[in-house]
């Protein structure tokens, strides 16, 4: 039955998030309509025609303005995120610092011009066959759709790394906010809009869409004006967007960070050298953010025998004594509980600690033990258990371990605890095949935002293993190369003009030339 009186039109569809801290409903948030999605993408397409002409200094100023405004309102944003997600305030404060740092990192990158990869090969009439003048640089790909993460509402949120890297590339951004923290999304969007006004960015450079249904996401990805997608979330969600994008008349890339078991292998030598410390540190890594980290060590390979037994016992004690916190939503808590029940119903699998749902949003810190036969027979044991839980698999001979590791899906990380005398070459080689980051005698949680970081991995960890969503190299997702042949200097992009007006480092006739500008920066071109 309609809820409105005859002769009246129905109001907009709304949704409300539920705080995992208090159980209270948040304010009603209007669901973005299909017409509004189209309007946002149309505005982004118009903005792209302007942004793609901006010199590096203006793009850098845009990013710095967002960083400054975000920093000014960080306390308000952190408070909202804490209420909506249940994540601890110190963790969110650190995430706020990271968000600001990412924006400023991309500002510095844009000013350096390294991301343009300007390359010049002068004409060589004496070559056989004769070689024309060729010049190549990277250009923005076009409007980008960004999907917020649930577990990192700031660093992978509205003003997070995907948005920052797309804006740095000169691409307008249309963000689909996560329905678990819509107020946080709104506050972050206000920050971005205020900063864009300060630098006179064109209307449509940024917009936020909100919705609790899949309709907004489907409409956004299938809009012809969108040229790439950045996503952080579940395997199911990322794969659905990837398939939608691939089925378009003009397929577009989807850079999705999805599920990851992040295997961690411990050799007996490491246990004998520092087993107690490994148990304590491993528990701390596993329970970071109540296990709701994309790099949480979810699958542990522990040798059979007394040192392995001692580690499992110590890890169990650490988890039972460890702190607990709410998961991001009741749905996530329910999914974890169901997955743990399925795992523990498998022959050869037992529950060593926890496993119970304590409330709508809280699950006990959990440790599940599986023998080799169960692991080989149970594909579900090789899937991500998102939350405060990990599966321990016991192994015997090195050959058995390698057979186990050969069954693993792609992951963001692969961790090895060993000593130099161990026969590690086959394991390290397999680790590099399975993951985007190999971790040695450390823990996978905590992703440094640096030049050398690769936060990606083979499917299902990501949909594009060649790209990272963290660090300066993340900008490459939203750029494409263009070569210019025998093109007059006056109409070339500034990065490729003969006198190098931007002062960029460039590869000229196969030799690197240092950054050294010779004149004022062009306003466009």
Automatic annotation (TrEMBL):
InterPro entries: Ald_DH/histidinol_DH, Ald_DH_C, Ald_DH_N, Aldehyde_DH_dom, Aldehyde_DH_Superfamily, ALDH_KGSADH
Source superkingdom: Bacteria
Keyword Oxidoreductase: yes
Any single Pfam family the record assigns to this protein: Aldedh
Alphabetized UniProt keyword annotations: Oxidoreductase
Keyword Oxidoreductase recorded: yes
Residues in Aldehyde dehydrogenase domain copies: 13-457
Compositional bias (Polar residues): 10-21
UniProt-annotated stretches for the region Disordered: 1-30
Protein name: Aldehyde dehydrogenase (NADP(+))
Organism: Streptosporangium vulgare
Lineage: Bacteria, Bacillati, Actinomycetota, Actinomycetes, Streptosporangiales
């Amino acid at each position: 039955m309609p809820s409105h009186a005859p002769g009246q039109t129905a109001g907009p569809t709304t949704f409300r998030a539920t705080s995992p801290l208090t159980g209270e409903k948040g304010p009603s948030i209007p669901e973005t309509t299909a017409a509004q999605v189209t309007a946002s993408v149309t505005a982004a397409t118009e903005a792209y025609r302007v942004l793609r002409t901006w010199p590096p200094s203006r793009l850098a100023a845009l990013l710095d303005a967002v960083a400054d405004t975000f920093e000014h309102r960080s306390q308000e944003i952190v408070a909202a995120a804490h209420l909506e997600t249940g994540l601890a305030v110190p963790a969110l404060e650190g995430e706020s610092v990271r968000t600001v740092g990412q924006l400023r990192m991309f500002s510095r990158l844009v000013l350096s011009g390294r991301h343009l990869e300007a390359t010049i090969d002068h004409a060589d009439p004496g070559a056989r066959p004769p070689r024309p003048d060729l010049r190549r640089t990277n250009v923005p790909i076009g409007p980008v759709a960004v999907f917020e993460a649930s577990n990192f509402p700031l660093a992978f949120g509205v003003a997070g790394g995907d948005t920052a890297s797309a804006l740095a590339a000169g691409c307008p951004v249309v963000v689909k906010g996560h329905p678990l923290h819509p107020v946080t999304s709104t506050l972050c969007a206000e920050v971005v809009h205020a900063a864009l006004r300060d630098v006179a960015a064109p209307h449509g450079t940024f917009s936020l869409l909100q919705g609790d249904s899949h309709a907004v996401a489907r409409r956004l990805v299938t809009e012809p004006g969108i040229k790439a997608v950045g996503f952080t979330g579940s395997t199911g969600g990322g794969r659905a967007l990837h398939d939608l994008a691939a089925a378009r008349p003009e397929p577009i890339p989807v850079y999705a960070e999805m599920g990851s078991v992040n295997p961690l292998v411990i050799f007996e030598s490491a246990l004998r050298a520092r087993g107690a410390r490994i148990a304590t540190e491993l528990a701390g890594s596993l329970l970071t953010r109540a296990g709701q980290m994309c790099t949480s060590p979810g699958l542990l390979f522990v040798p059979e025998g007394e040192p392995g037994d001692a580690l499992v016992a110590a890890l169990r004690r650490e988890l039972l004594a460890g702190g607990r916190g709410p998961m991001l939503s009741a749905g996530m808590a329910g999914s974890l509980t169901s997955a743990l029940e399925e795992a523990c119903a498998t022959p050869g699998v037992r529950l060593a600690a926890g496993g119970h749902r304590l409330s709508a949003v809280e699950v006990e810190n959990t440790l599940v033990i599986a023998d080799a036969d169960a692991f080989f027979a149970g594909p579900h044991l090789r899937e991500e258990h998102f939350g405060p839980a990990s599966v321990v698999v016991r192994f015997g001979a090195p050959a058995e371990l390698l057979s186990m590791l050969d069954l693993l899906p792609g992951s963001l990380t692969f961790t090895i605890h060993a000593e130099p005398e161990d026969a590690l070459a086959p394991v390290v080689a397999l680790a590099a095949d399975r993951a985007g980051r190999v971790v040695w005698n450390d823990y996978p949680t905590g992703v440094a935002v640096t030049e050398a970081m690769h936060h990606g991995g083979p499917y299902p960890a990501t949909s594009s293993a060649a790209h990272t969503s963290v660090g300066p190299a993340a900008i490459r997702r939203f750029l494409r190369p263009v070569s210019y042949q025998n093109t007059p200097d006056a109409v070339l992009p500034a990065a490729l003009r003969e006198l190098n007006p931007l002062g960029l480092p460039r590869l000229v006739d196969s030799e690197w030339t240092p950054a050294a500008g010779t004149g004022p920066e062009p306003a466009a071109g």
